[in-house]
Amino acid sequence: MVAASLSTPTAAAGAAPNGWVAALLASAPDGADALAATRAQAAPALAQTPLPSRRVEAWRFTDLAPLTALKPDRLTPEPAAALPEPLAGSLRLVLDGRSDPLAGISLPAGVEPIGGDELNATLGQVLAATGSAELWPVLLNGVTARQVLALRVRGPVATTLELVSDAGAGEGILPLRLLLVLEAESSLEILQVHRSGGANLTSVVLEARLGEGAELRHGLLAPGAETGCLLATVAVEQATGSRYSGVSAHGGWALGRLEPRLVQREGAAHSTLKALQLADGRQISDTHSQMVFEGPDGRLEQLHKAVADGQGRSVFNGAVQVPREAQRTDAAQLSRNLLLSDRARIDTKPELEIVADDVRCAHGATVSRLEQDELFYLQSRGIAADQAARLLLRGFCEEVLQELPAAARPWQPLASLLGEQGR
Fold first, then answer.
1. What are 242-265's pLDDT values in tens digits?
2. 195, β-bridge pairs
3. Are the beta carbons of 264 and 299 closer than 8 angstroms?
4. What sign results for the dihedral spanned by CA atoms 397, 402, 405, 410?
């Protein structure tokens, strides 16, 4: 089976595009480049797909006002802000959506670029397999992106690839497109870091295909700006015996939405999803995940954590589909949330759709405040109330953050997400 889209509004044939979308289409790049064919396909589809609204189930808790307030044009690059020194054993590639990130770079043994006819034949296949091709954020990316970082991995790769983008303080859209193909028995660790300091949109689409026995360890760290937006789609197709571990952390964005969508094509694969999202002020942090088992003996471990403060809003929808052919599936999904303000809001909805009759599947969700007895204990040891609260918050977040690749340490994940770097 092919995963059905849970997030795409129904296209109305011949419908006039929304004004913001129309302006975006008018400013879309043209010319012959690696993604010209993708843009040609995405433009009419985006024009006929309504802007997501709260009438659409997957978007009913997500206000797009921060997005449509942005300039619907490609971002003009600015001089890159200072970046921390990368750790030994990692290779940093800077993505600006315009220039070749591999220029002047020697890739580690086992990693090679994909181009030409092979790129044209491969690009978009994982999106189709995971039901992601018609998602509105994917169509938006398809209309605006001109560059794609496409890599093939053969065998185990010891070097961590660090993929970094910084939208800076400029206005407009920074589109990034990534493709990873892991051959059988290969392994790779990557860390995506996306930053912003202004009223702009970072649009990211990553496709990853894992061959038999392949392993991908994937981290995504995204500290944003209060006027910035992030739309990130991660599509992963897994063959038998493969392992995917995805760890994400995002916060600080006016609107931040992550959509990891996984499919175990033949079963007998292992998937791990761990995520942390933070919302403060009037920010919206949103994660919509989808996991589809298409064969027996698959396994999923999913932990999603959220913190909402101020008037922030956190949204989580985790859909797991277990059709009849996915016997002996073992899937566990847990959503844990901290509500730190009476004006904040958390909407969480773990979902299991099970047709198979021989499975072990469980899900759960909790929404709570900081434990008063734990606060009392710390204060009884001479720790001030506000410091005690910060210690408990740190402990709540670190359960996920410590699973990020080691290459994330120089970025100070928790401090960057809380806007406390340098303090």
1. 999 999 999 999 999 999 999 999
2. 166
3. no
4. positive
Cα 322 to Cα 14, 116, 303: the distances in Å are 36, 37, 18
| Residues counted in the chain | 423
Q: State residue 299's pLDDT score.
A: 97
**What span, in angstroms and rounded, lies between the C-alpha atoms of 268 and 388?**
44
Boundaries of every domain in the chain: 35-417
Among residues 275, 243, 272, the alpha carbon closest in space to that of 259 is found at: 275
Predicted confidence (pLDDT) per residue in 33-88, tens digit: 889 989 999 999 999 998 998 888 889 999 899 999 999 998 987 766 789 999 99
Query: How far apart are the C-alpha atoms of 238 and 12, rounded to whole Å?
Result: 33
Strands (E), 309-368: 313-322, 330-339, 345-354, 360-368
Return the exposure string of 261-299: e unless at least 16 CB atoms fall within 10 Å of the residue's CB, then b: bbbbbbbbbbbbbbbbbbbbeebbbbbbbbbbbbbbbbb
d(C-alpha 150, C-alpha 273), whole Å: 23
Task: Please report where in the chains the tokens 């995520």 appear, as a residue.
Answer: 275
Q: Tokens 């001089």 correspond to what residue?
A: 79
Residue 373 has pLDDT above 80, yes or no: no
Contact 137, 10 (CB under 8 A): no
Look up residue 26 and give its amino acid: A
pTM of the shown model:
0.92
